[in-house]
């Protein structure tokens, strides 16, 4: 089997409301659909969300990188040769979301060619997983309303709460969430580098008092000594996300004492490098969890497959609900969240089909 074409199609799909976090805000899904076609007629898909505040990419840069840098390497290659392709793509640095989407599309193709779903190819740890919902920054009342809707309508009982602005405001929001949702729900927090080290240490202690279980990216990890001080003094584990975006970056962060658990995202490390990161962490006794890059529906299907594929990831709630912010998407069957869980698709590959009318409607390149 040989790859014949690689396309990067920019989309614009409105959100029901903006999603805000300490390092930025999204108001629409301006994601790039990567579509890889083979000589035997198979079509694989991946989704790249531009996140300039994390990777420096925009929709235009993702389209250009796929077209000018990655497509020439991929056309003519056998999608099964993912290790060779990985090495060839790695000759270009950065462009994490573009490479993540390409890797997802390759696994989609391989799964279709083998007649197996991706989570089964990865190791089939589970058929479904508990989900976690990310609550964006807002007034405490807005944040509580979001969580209550997710709890009442979808049975969700694990929440990642965005923090990292004014600490007093953050603590009011978390306290309200704990009061409204009760002691049984899991709350963990993500500051997206919004605090300095001193604020983060106070925050970690206060969050621990509210039974918050983990704190993601409290400050910029480049503030090296500050980050180490937080790790030393925080009563709850510090999770690496945007400071741990590659296999080598994860190794360095753990060895340097910058983080104690790792958020793994299909959107930046695809399935291939996500599995390598999980293996590295498993060997070191470090917890990994499936994070969310404010993924669209395709990204959420891929993240669910990753969570169901690897045993170390299936243990912790998987962040796959934020596509519910979207008013629509280009995939024909939206992901289902029910009773606080998401199931892996049982069809070969990712099990997604693209609706041609929706694609024509939402693409912004014609
Ligand atoms: C997260 O875990 O940080 C916020 C921005 C982004 O790209 O991903 C999110 C979620
Ligand atoms: Mg994060």
From TrEMBL:
Q: Is the keyword Metal-binding in the record?
A: yes
Q: Which InterPro entries match?
A: Enolase-like_C_sf (IPR036849), Enolase-like_N (IPR029017), Enolase_C-like (IPR029065), Mandel_Rmase/mucon_lact_enz_CS (IPR018110), Mandelate_racemase_C (IPR013342), Mandelate_racemase_N_dom (IPR013341), Muconate_cycloisomerase_anti (IPR034613)
The chain positions of domain Mandelate racemase/muconate lactonizing enzyme C-terminal read 140-237
Question: Which SMART domains does the record match to this protein?
Answer: MR_MLE (SM00922)
Kindly state which keywords UniProt assigns to this record, in alphabetical order: Isomerase, Metal-binding
Glycoprotein is among the record's keywords: no
Question: Per UniProt, what is one Pfam family of this protein?
Answer: MR_MLE_C
Q: Which family does it belong to?
A: Belongs to the mandelate racemase/muconate lactonizing enzyme family.
- Protein name from the UniProt record: Mandelate racemase/muconate lactonizing enzyme family protein
- Organism in which the protein naturally occurs: Actinomycetospora chibensis
